[in-house]
Amino acid sequence: MGHRILIAEDDPEIVLLMQKLLAGRYEVEVFGDGLSALQRLEQDPLPDLLILDVMMPKLDGVTLLKSVKSHPRTKRIPAIIVSAKGGPKDVIDGISAGVKHYLTKPFKADDLVKKVQKILG
What we know:
Layout: E1 4-8, H1 12-22, E2 27-31, H2 34-40, E3 49-52, H3 61-70, E4 79-83, H4 88-97, E5 101-104, H5 109-120
Parallel strand pairs: 1-2, 1-3, 3-4, 4-5
Helix pairs in contact: 2-3
């Protein structure tokens, strides 16, 4: 299989949907909290894309993304945020943390797949 995607999402239904949409085409790893995802990024191989929820236990998605972007080893990994927090301030926080795309829940399956394909080619 080609590209690796790391998903940090604590909602089991959303995880299932994302796995259905992406697992056939990509290698998908799922973590239920931001801290586990961050710890995984200390190991090889690095993922080619991060899909992050904002509101998660232990470490939120924006803080996780800021940490990823501040580390030379992981700063080039693109990220998509998928969150129920869709207010202008939330989107601006995501963009200033370095996210490529910001999708609000509920999201359209097509939108997620298209954005992933756009980033990974």
